[in-house]
Design brief:
With about 120 residues, this protein is an alpha+beta fold. It has one domain: Alpha-Beta Complex (50s Ribosomal Protein L17, Chain: A). The protein is built from 4 helices and 3 strands; from the N terminus they run αβαααββ. Strands 1-3-2 form a 3-stranded antiparallel β-sheet, covered by helices on one side. A hairpin with a 6-residue loop joins strand 2 and strand 3.
Length: about 120
């Protein structure tokens, strides 16, 4: 029996999708706001929320887990700044704002940002 696969393919191979998610989550954490297509924003949102939730634990295992996926600067900001900001919040750390379609190919654009 065929089962539904989780996630979007984004017209990329598995390795490319994985790299794209890591890069976009890193940039989201460092800049706190990125502009991308709606499909990519929805895909990155779930990974970003999980990373923030993991950083709130504040133990060594959580930090090492984050270091496997993110750049050192992103891990530092996540564990020192963002985990304190979202300490009392139970999920919903990101927001997707829809923009109009992109002029070149009419792809639906969005802004993915961290909630203050």
């Amino acid at each position: 029996m065929n089962k539904r696969k989780k996630g979007r393919k984004l017209s990329r191979t598995r390795d490319q999708r994985k790299a794209l998610r890591r890069i976009m989550v890193t940039h989201l954490i460092l800049k706190e706001r990125i502009q991308t297509t709606l499909a990519k924003a929805k895909e990155v949102r779930s990974m970003a929320e999980k990373m923030i939730t993991r950083s709130k634990k504040g133990n060594l295992a959580a930090t090492r887990f984050l270091a496997r996926f993110l750049a050192p600067a992103a891990v530092k900001k996540l564990t020192q700044e963002l985990s304190g900001r979202y300490a009392t919040r139970n999920g919903g750390y990101t927001r997707i704002l829809r923009l109009g379609p992109r002029a070149s190919d009419r792809a639906q654009m969005a802004i993915l940002e961290l909630v203050k």
